[in-house]
Design a protein that fits this description.
This protein is α+β, with helices and mostly antiparallel strands and 370 residues long. The chain contains ten helices and 17 strands. The strands form four sheets. Strands 3, 5, 6, 8, 14, 15 and 16 form a seven-stranded mixed sheet that branches. It has a six-stranded mixed sheet with strand order 9-17-13-10-12-11. A hairpin with a 4-residue loop joins strand 1 and strand 2.
Length: 370
């Protein structure tokens, strides 16, 4: 892939006897945990070696010779940071894409359409009587406006900027406090986490429109087993016999074991109880874990409810509730926030990507409040 860089960057490539493609491939492979084969030494290099090479190259691109000179480091990032961001943006694109594809939660609910600049930003919806909601990004997260769709419709989905702030992390990486793989992988996970929150909020808003036979509540034990199983069966039947999955946080899924005699389960199921807290498969129905995390540093409130379960039909991309437009082009930008008199200026960095969402609730799903 041809790239145009300034004389300083090209000189660094030349001094290291390498190219943009070689560096970009190394950065991507390390970030994704792939095996790295070094043709020059004819051997597979370790993750530690690969991370060290990327860090050394990054410092050369930035023009940093003494990482202990705080002022010099700050000026180097200021003067040469743009070229460095241009080099790593393609890697961030790939890592975000892979994180989307490897998220079970994302894959179960999100119909993703990646577009290029100027492409049409719409989906064709075939449902005869779908309940439609547009979930805007940016400042209006989780603001869902419901309307009815009658018959076949084409739905345009506008995109907005989604941002992950990485200011402090850049400095930690340059100083060697965090390795390349961890830092870049965290950016990908952060995007998936944001989309999980938006998707989860959409599910929450949809519950009120579900018919009574698709909703249940109570402790998951032998007393409520028939009711819970009835919802699983109803969701499948309402979606033409489709396979379903049960989604929830680890603690929510573990409650299902109260309805199953684990002693009679297959060995791999018993192992799953010990290793993950849930039985993996409930009477033929797959359990999908929603990775939970805390909302803030107080470590008191979770993002995802630990007492909610969702029974979701598996009916291909066309039937997924969340319609997502991804422009697929990541940009790293700098922001300088000027302080008042005697206050230091604060420089921050953001990873930006344009995404858009439409939530189409035309398929029945199930819900259980434990």
């Amino acid at each position: 892939m041809a790239k145009n860089f300034n004389e300083h960057v090209m000189a660094v490539f030349s001094a290291n006897d390498t190219t943009y493609d070689a560096v970009s491939n190394l950065m991507t492979d390390v970030a994704l945990g792939r095996e790295i084969f070094d043709a020059e030494t004819n051997r597979v290099i370790t993750k530690t070696e690969a991370n060290a090479r990327i860090l050394d190259f990054s410092r050369q691109i930035l023009g940093i010779t003494d990482i202990k000179d705080k002022k010099a480091v700050r000026r180097a990032i200021r003067d040469n940071g743009r070229a460095w961001y241009d080099i790593i943006e393609d890697t961030v694109d790939t890592v975000i894409d892979v994180n989307f594809k490897e998220s079970d939660f994302f894959n179960a609910l999100v119909d993703r359409k990646t577009i290029g600049y100027g492409d049409r930003q719409d989906f064709v919806i075939e449902d005869e009587d779908a309940l439609f909601s547009i979930a805007k990004a940016g400042e209006s997260h989780h603001d869902h406006i419901l309307q009815r769709l009658r018959g076949r419709r084409t739905i345009p989905v506008e995109t907005d900027l989604w941002v992950v702030k990485i200011g402090a992390d850049i400095n930690r990486y340059i100083l060697g406090d965090v390795d390349w793989a961890s830092w870049i992988s965290n950016i990908g996970r952060s995007y998936v986490a944001m989309i999980q929150e938006e998707t989860y909020a959409a599910l929450g808003s949809a519950i009120t429109s579900l018919p009574a036979q698709f909703k249940g509540t109570g402790t998951l034990d032998s007393t409520n087993k028939a009711s819970f199983d009835g919802i699983v069966e109803a969701v499948s039947a309402a979606n033409n016999g489709a396979e379903v999955v049960i989604m929830g946080t680890k603690s929510a899924l573990s409650a299902i074991s109260g309805m199953a005699d684990v002693n009679w389960a297959a060995k791999d199921q018993r192992d799953s109880v010990m290793n993950t807290g849930n039985i993996g498969i409930y009477e033929g129905t797959t359990l999908v874990t929603i990775p939970n995390r805390f909302k803030d540093k107080s470590m008191t409130n979770y993002v995802f409810d630990t007492d909610k379960l969702y029974i979701i039909p598996v009916i291909g991309d066309a039937g997924k509730f969340i319609k997502m437009i991804d422009e697929g082009d990541t940009e790293i930008v700098e922001h300088m926030e000027k302080g008042e008199l005697y206050v230091s200026d604060l420089q921050t960095y953001e990873v930006q990507r344009r995404l858009g969402f439409a939530v189409v609730l035309g398929r029945y799903f199930g819900y259980w409040d434990i």
